[in-house]
Specification:
Blueprint lengths: L17 E5 L2 E4 H7 L14 H20 L4 E3 L3 E4 L4 E3 L10 E2 L3 E8 L2 E6 L2 H6 L4 H7 L2 E2 L2 E2 L3 E2 L2 E7 L6 E7 L4 E2 L3 H50 L5 H12 L2
Antiparallel strand pairs: 1-2, 3-4, 4-5, 5-6, 7-8, 7-12, 9-10, 11-14, 12-13
Helix pairs in contact: 1-2, 5-6
The structure holds zinc ion.
Zinc ion (ZN) binds next to strand 2 and helix 1.
């Protein structure tokens, strides 16, 4: 084996100006940029196969198209933008190309304070049921004797687990490397932001659940309706043409 690995053209676009070695070929800077990022935490280029780069490039392209069409109808400061018409949301986080998520992508929402999950909910009702920061009080308000010690909050974020292949975990950072005393005005403002964000997620998750239920209901109901009209057709109450037209209408085709 030689000391130097011979550079080959970019395995994606064929450019001779290659930048990094992948698991199974070389890649140029342009193709790295077009992928929107394909390295996961601590991973090296040489560990990544071309197939994943292609998949990421495809996902990135689709996301850019969604992003262009995304138009926020609701906002919680710069933390969360929602497009109610398309049932989508993004976390701007000051990054260039945030991932466009759908309401249906949301799996669970956690509030993480000083590294501990203080609120956790996998459904809208679970989020609604837990008293906001109820558990946080238990963790943060450690008592020494009778005197309550207020914790110093150094980090506060919301983690959203998603079904979106572009990003399985999305984070909203409210405080990082900070020094905020629990119970202070700053802390209370942060709490208010968290509550506002959580209530938006509750609404989106409730909407997703509702849609799911509707779809289930719609399918059964549509099938039932067709059967009903089929009987009317068989009985000669309506013509075959009328039945066909009704069927198409019910199936939405
Ligand atoms: Zn290339």
């Amino acid at each position: 084996m030689g000391l130097f690995t011979k550079k080959e053209p970019c395995c994606i676009c064929g450019s001779a100006q290659v930048k990094e070695k992948l698991a199974d070929g070389w890649i140029c800077q342009n193709c790295i940029n077009n992928s929107g990022g394909f390295l996961s935490g601590g991973e090296k280029f040489k560990d990544v196969p071309k197939a994943r780069v292609l998949q990421c490039t495809e996902n990135h392209k689709k996301n850019m198209e969604l992003l262009v069409q995304f138009s926020a109808t609701r906002k919680v400061k710069k933390y969360l933008y929602i497009d109610e018409n398309k049932r989508q949301w993004i976390v701007p986080n000051d990054i260039k190309d945030p991932i466009v998520m759908s309401y249906d992508d949301i799996v669970s929402v956690d509030v993480i304070q000083n590294g501990n999950s203080v609120i956790s909910g996998g459904t809208a009702s679970a989020l609604a049921g837990g008293a906001l920061f109820g558990a946080a009080g238990a963790i943060a308000g450690a008592t020494v004797g009778k005197k309550s010690v207020k914790e110093e909050i150094t980090s506060l974020m919301i983690m959203i687990s998603t079904k979106n292949p572009n990003m399985r975990k999305e984070y909203i950072f409210l405080l990082s490397n900070g020094k905020v005393q629990e119970g202070s005005t700053t802390y209370n403002f942060l709490k208010l932001d968290v509550q506002n964000i959580l209530s938006e997620f509750k609404i989106m998750m409730a909407d997703a659940e509702e849609k799911k239920a509707q779809n289930r209901y719609g399918t059964t109901s549509g099938a039932d309706e067709i059967a009903k009209y089929k009987k009317l057709c068989d009985d000669g109450v309506i013509t075959k043409e009328e039945f066909e037209a009704k069927k198409k209408q019910l199936l939405g085709i």
